[in-house]
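Open question from group meeting: does this chain pack into something compact, or does most of it stay loose? Before anyone orders reagents, we agreed to write out a predicted structure and look at it together. Recording both the input and the output here so the notebook holds the full record.
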Amino acid sequence: MKILLIEDDARTAAFILKGLKQAGFTTVHAEDGKTGLFKAKTEEFDLAVIDIMLPVMDGFTVIEKIRAAKISTPIIILSAKNAVEDKIRGLQLGSDDYLAKPFSFSELLARIQALLRRANTASDPTTLTVADLTIDLLSHKVTRGNVRIDIQPLEFQLLEYLVRNTGRVVSKTMIMEHVWEYNFDPQTNVVEARVCRLRDKIDKPFERKLIHTVRGFGYVLE
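Structure tokens returned:
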């Protein structure tokens, strides 16, 4: 997932950038409104976090121009302005959420994740494809090329999670939380065991391998 951060305060920006990196996001930072608007128009982002009080071009204008350009990227306003009028103006211009400073990173992250879930739900395809691998989200059928692959429900959930995060390294903890939906003892080898079984079906019979181990970090499908 790729996020655009338009924030001129160096301390706040560093705080957010560090947190988003630890959460597994790729973040592009702009220090003024004009630069941020250019990046929003020339690059694709899954979400934007925009401060209001920016040099060169204020955040309200940036949001207005982003929406005028027919860019539907979800936007969270981040601002020291906490007046109701400012919140209303931001929402009317096309932002999706408003978070006042000071804030906790955990709250910002929760709002980001909620908006991303909403955006993904609205545009979710019924099939996902990586290389010659295709998974049908409705029938739960998995194929590589013309070969049908039989996998168990939990293996399908694991594969779907890896495919949805194609190119992004996911840790054991992330897999536990998203696939099993609760925490295991971090010393357990349940993730390694499931990934190994999934590889036997998805990769072993084929020359091209899709599931890769990133030692010390987790797994990536690419």
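Observations to bring back to the group:
The first helix runs from residue 10 to 22.
The two ends are 15 Å apart (CA to CA).
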